[in-house]
Structure formats: structure tokens, C-alpha cells
Amino acid sequence: MDEHISVDVTEGVQTIRIDRPEKSNALTAEMYEAAADALALADHDTAVRAVLFAGMPGVFTAGHDVDELRQYLDSSTFGESPVRFMKTLATVDKPVVAAVDGLAVGIGTTMLFHCDFVVASEWSIFSSPFADLGMPPEAGSSLLAPGIMGHHFAFELLVMGEQFDAQRALAVGLINRVVVPEDLDSVALGYARALSAKPPQAVRLARRLLRGDRRDVVNRIGLEAGSFPELMHSPAAHDALLAFLDRNRDQFS
């Protein structure tokens, strides 16, 4: 398990916490692998009935680690580890709750489309400025976001790159509850425990029916990642991502 991903199982809830505050919880390949491993373990562990994702005070995650994004740019290939995490999250059979405080950038926002219940602090900020960075949408968000938010809000988030505060995210259906920061962990954990206390077979069946066939989502994740090399052959997209990496060389340190 990566040192920046902590995993704990208590009272039927597996908590996966992103813990790299010195880099605003930016995710490395090792962190993605650790989170994917934890999800896979939760799916096969009968003691786990719900999963809770959390970050640190003030930041859920700032997205991909910039050094690894530079490697993707240099190789014109999107990383296998984030794709594995996205596909694992898309297909996990246990209910997933998220507790979001502060920054939720890129994958910090798009992963929420796979969660079943999201609690956010009142000062949370959600953004996925993929087009601004010359990158494609990710995590199946190009398929899931329009279904959850409607086309216009999804376009605003994923293409216009607009930031959504907690109240706006609540209004468009991205999150379920807004709470004061000091209550975030306890409220989110309470919902996860409430889920874990329900008959697990009934929860899984209802969730499967609500979510539908996930093959289209998994395929879309692959299509999004597969379009990254094509975009990097576009000078404008390549230069946009390069400029972002240069501006954020010491990402939120």
C-alpha cells in the first residue's frame, strides 16, 4: 500500500483516504494503484459493505501529479495506473460514498460521477478544465456527466472549464449534501455506516439496477484515454498542457 493512501475498515466501512497534503493530494501512479487495490479488496471482502473516499482538510485532490503528467506528455501516452483506477471504480460492486473538502480538481471531480453519495464541505470547489489543458475528459465523465447534470452543465464543467462551488454542485446533482467543514467526516461516515447496515444483497441489486450495464462506461474510459495521444499531436493541445505543467512545476507545494 502506498504511504499516501491509507485504508481502514471499521464497522463495515472501508475508508480510503488520500494523504499527500504537501502536494495538495496530487495522485501518482503508485497512489492510483493503491486505491485500485483497495477497491478490488473491498469488492471481495464480505466484511466491507460500503466504501468511503476522503481527502485531507482543505483538499480532496488536485488531480494528477504534474511530474507524471509531464511523462504522459513526453510519451504521448496516458498512464495505465489512473485508467486501472478509473475502471475499477466504475465496476466496484459495493456502494461508494465520498467526503470532499476544498479542492476537487480533475479526477477529484470526475470520480464523483461513480460515487453513489457525495458529502461536501461548504467551501469545496469542483473543476475539470480538460479542454483548457488540451486534454480529453476522463473517468467516463463524457458519458456520465450529461446523464447526471444534463448536457449544458456538463459542457460548462468539462469543456468551458468553469468552477462549481458546493451550492452549485448541489443544485446540478453532482453532490448530495453540503455541510460545515468540521462535520464533513462524521456526516459522510454516518451515511456510509447507514449503507453498511442495510441488507447487502438488496443494496447491491438496487445499485446495479440504478447504474445499469457498466460496459459502456468502461469502454468510454478507454476511448477517453486513447484520445490523449491524438490530442498530443495537436500543437495547440500539446502547448496548452506544456504551459500548464510549466506553471505548476512545484504543484501547490
Automatic annotation (TrEMBL):
<dbReference type="InterPro" id="IPR051053">
    <property type="entry name" value="ECH/Chromodomain_protein"/>
</dbReference>
<keyword id="KW-0576">Peroxisome</keyword>
<keyword id="KW-0413">Isomerase</keyword>
<dbReference type="InterPro" id="IPR001753">
    <property type="entry name" value="Enoyl-CoA_hydra/iso"/>
</dbReference>
<dbReference type="Pfam" id="PF00378">
    <property type="entry name" value="ECH_1"/>
</dbReference>
<protein>
    <submittedName>
        <fullName>Enoyl-CoA hydratase/carnithine racemase</fullName>
    </submittedName>
</protein>
<dbReference type="InterPro" id="IPR029045">
    <property type="entry name" value="ClpP/crotonase-like_dom_sf"/>
</dbReference>
<dbReference type="GO" id="GO:0004165">
    <property type="term" value="F:delta(3)-delta(2)-enoyl-CoA isomerase activity"/>
</dbReference>
